[in-house]
Amino acid sequence: MKTERQCPHPHGCIRQARKLLATLPPKWNPCSRLPEDYQNIDYAPGIFTKAEGWSKPDLKVTTTGELSEIFRIFTDGDSKPSNDLPKLEPPTWDPDENITVATDGSCNNNGEQNAKAGAGVFISEGHPDNRAIRLPNYLKNSNQTGELVGSQIAAITINPKLTLGLETDSMHVINTLKNAKKIEDEGYENTPNGELVRSVIASFRGRKTPMYVKWVKGHAGHERNEGADKMAREALEKNKVSFINLNPPNTLKITGAKLSKLTQSKAYKAIMNIKEKEKNKNSRRRTEISIMRVQNCVEDRFGYIPTQDRIWASIRNKDHDRKIRDFLWKVAHDAYWTGTHWLRASMPQTLQERAICKGCDEIEDMEHILTKCEMPGQRLLWELAEQLWKKKKSSFEWGKPAIGDIIGGGMARIYGKKKDKPHPGQNRLWKIIITETAYLIWTLRCKRVIEYEGARALPESEIQSSWIKMINNRLDLDCRMTRPSCGSKMISKRLVIATWQGTLHKEDSLPRDWTTIHGVLVGITGENNEGVG
């Protein structure tokens, strides 16, 4: 240094440089032993070979590439970044000392409000590290979360000095570990069960020895897989739930999405997810009441309690066209200006009068309009809907829908003759009849109130013809949607036929595939059950 840099005091400069480096946190000190110094070492896989179906996920913590790779957006402001190094350096161990463990998940009432999930970890019969874990309620209880928790528990509890081989029949777990880098780069915002996935990835990263994963076919006689499945089912019988840690160490916790990996679409989804979380913290009381009504109605009618997520998903179902989806969404949020909305203190007296139904002298909220109003329309349209449903000759009896049945029209679970699985045609017809009829009641009410200013009732003949036209238009739309020209929106002919079978005019004279015939009509008018041409 003295000759090359012309430094008169090289030793003093070196001492000063060391002092400056010593002020840096370990994570940023180049003199520290960093993960990149030892995580790039390849170890012999031993028995975990590609030929046997094993693969090694990339769970390195080091970021490589351009400087832009280190910038993140949508980070968690409540999570303080750590300047410490993760302690991941492998101990002295023999790579050939290994253990193979199978994990699985199980769930009762999967996708319902009262779902109960368990996770299983199995090594061999009677092994002390076998586990049966009942999932807590603060986690979404489902098959997938059970599978994720099982893999996380295996990563945490199995001897850290052993090379770990993880067998699972869950492609969700396999893909989560294989795509850990990509999921992390996108900030977990668009990942289902993001907090749990973050914790699972951190748990596997926390293991200091290599790990491998392998997919095995479930219920195919694999001893360990069958054992894990048994443990997961045993967990469902437990009354006491287990604690699942969703807060990984700060040295392994990464929040936010890489700016370099963010597209406009992903950024938009992330923003919407953040807004949705904020909205859920301050949910509207009217919306909560609507959701409870749906859950109560579905439980009474179909015998299960749907989750909020499934209710909202049913409203967005592709069997509803856009106007129906918008209608159901607004009804669920009580967003239409009806009933007590007009009774706000800021409203003048002339507008407050709109809260009262002129025909019934009752508060005209959406429940009243769709299910209780005595003005011609509501009762007659539900009678027509009942006639059409009875032509289906379903074992499921008709009952006049309540407001919760209408919002949750897509939650039907009607079983066929074998009672082993829901009947797709009957469920779809129920969904169509309930939601389309409710929307027609609303549009005819608006016509009466807005166009005629509530001065006169609509004639019954007009109401009947409106319903028949509506249901025939929907039948015609279904037939047209079976054409290949509809592309990804095409509906299978089999489903359309199953939906409308038994309800058509002169059905016995129609060919087996009537979806290509123009002018097929429902066999009902409301009076004599004859088709209308």
From TrEMBL:
EC number: 3.1.26.4
Organism: Collybiopsis confluens
Keyword tags: Endonuclease, Hydrolase, Metal-binding, Nuclease
Any Pfam family the entry gives: RNase_H
UniProt-recorded Gene Ontology molecular function terms: metal ion binding; nucleic acid binding; RNA-DNA hybrid ribonuclease activity
Protein name listed in UniProt: ribonuclease H
Domain RNase H type-1: 95-237
Keyword Nuclease on entry: yes
Enzyme class per UniProt: hydrolase
